């Protein structure tokens, strides 16, 4: 069998690391690009890459997406069949502090990636977007068929822009594109700036945890292994060209003018934030000291994914219960940080 090549951007990131691991397990050759930005602990990113480099099928490139010529050269050399674009500046809150970093990584970086793909078209491009693009929407669960035109943070605005930039390239150059909308992902090797990690660390260190909107928050937490199962399954669901369509799946977000669709990858079961905190407390066997606060600017009180399209396309649907996912995360954390 001919080995297929995937280019994964953000391969030293939380989701990128797990995605590369799964692709390697499934026999892909993987080129990973990551700039090792200092948005959070760089040594965690280095440890992720070091783990991946134990597999001979993985090659790492340390550079920024927007370094002139870097993506074009990578595409020319490796001619990837699949591109999974996960590099980017994440985080709702940091986009208030440092909005320009979102312009550079998310807007210019994604533009450079699309230009490289235009020159050397892969069979399928998959790009990360976020549940945050649903912004001020109140109709739940969030469906890909709903309009999502009222972003509440600049982070979400850059991700919505990415969706539409990719749509125009899909239309103009017949480039098949799947946009993922991820919902609060957690699990081993996760991001230190996200709540599950922050809460676990603070509880273990005896520090108080900040609970926003006085705990009245619901999040559709998605366990990393379920997310990666969705990504890898969707890799095989290439959006068909406009004139090559027969039957269309119900509620499909497929564009009428481009081989482009957007798919939620979320649990479909929102959890109360306080229940999630209780699951961490149970897994640690420790009680958290809590500081109840107002809502943070740019944030939304609830997220809830419709997982119908993901299931209709792939037969997969996230299923890991929060209790199990949190136990696995906490076990990893204690082992990794030796505490
Ligand atoms: N984790 C979540 O819950 C979640 C939810 C919704 C969307 N997303 C999106 O999914 C993607 C992956 O998220 P993650 O949680 O793995 O984040 P992450 O920060 O762990 O990974 C992103 C990686 O991209 C790299 N990077 C940043 N800017 C770069 C640039 N200009 N050039 C090259 N590399 C660069 C970083 O060094 C990092 O390793 C991001 O686009 C994020 O916005 C994540």
From TrEMBL:
InterPro entries: Epimerase_deHydtase (IPR001509), NAD(P)-bd_dom_sf (IPR036291). It holds the Pfam family Epimerase. Transmembrane segments: none annotated. The keyword Disulfide bond does not apply. Residues 6-236 form the NAD-dependent epimerase/dehydratase domain. The keyword ATP-binding does not apply. Coiled coil: none annotated. PANTHER family: EPIMERASE-RELATED (PTHR43574). This is UDP-glucuronate 4-epimerase. It comes from Shimia abyssi. The lineage of its organism: Bacteria, Pseudomonadati, Pseudomonadota, Alphaproteobacteria, Rhodobacterales.
């Amino acid at each position: 069998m001919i080995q297929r090549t995937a280019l994964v951007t953000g391969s030293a990131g939380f989701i990128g690391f797990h995605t590369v691991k799964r692709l390697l397990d499934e026999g892909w050759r993987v080129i990973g690009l990551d700039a090792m930005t200092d948005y959070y602990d760089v040594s965690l990113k280095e440890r992720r890459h070091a783990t991946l480099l134990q597999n001979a099928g993985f090659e790492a490139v340390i550079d920024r997406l927007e370094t002139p010529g870097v993506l074009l050269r990578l595409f020319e050399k490796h001619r990837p069949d699949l591109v999974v674009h996960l590099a980017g500046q994440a985080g709702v809150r940091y986009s208030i502090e440092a909005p320009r970093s979102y312009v550079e990584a998310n807007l210019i970086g994604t533009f450079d990636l699309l230009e490289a793909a235009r020159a050397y078209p892969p069979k399928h491009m998959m790009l990360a977007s976020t549940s945050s693009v649903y912004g001020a929407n109140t109709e739940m669960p969030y469906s890909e068929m709903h309009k999502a035109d009222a972003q509440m943070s600049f982070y979400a605005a850059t991700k919505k822009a990415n969706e539409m930039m990719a749509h125009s390239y899909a239309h103009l150059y017949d480039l098949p594109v799947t946009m993922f909308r991820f919902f609060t992902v957690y699990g081993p090797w996760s991001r230190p700036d996200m709540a599950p990690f922050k809460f676990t660390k603070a509880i273990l260190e005896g520090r108080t945890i900040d609970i926003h909107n006085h705990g009245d928050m619901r999040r559709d937490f998605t366990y990393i292994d379920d997310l990666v199962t969705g990504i890898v399954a969707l890799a095989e669901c290439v959006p068909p060209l406009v004139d090559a369509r027969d039957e269309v799946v119900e509620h499909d977000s497929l564009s009428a003018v481009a081989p482009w669709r957007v798919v939620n990858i979320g649990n479909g079961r929102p959890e109360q934030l306080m229940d999630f905190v209780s699951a961490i407390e149970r897994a640690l066997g420790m009680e958290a000291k809590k500081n109840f606060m107002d809502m943070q600017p740019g944030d939304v009180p609830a997220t809830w994914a419709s997982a119908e399209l993901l299931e209709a396309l792939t037969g997969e649907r996230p299923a890991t219960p929060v209790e199990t996912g949190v136990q696995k995360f906490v076990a990893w954390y204690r082992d990794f940080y030796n505490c």
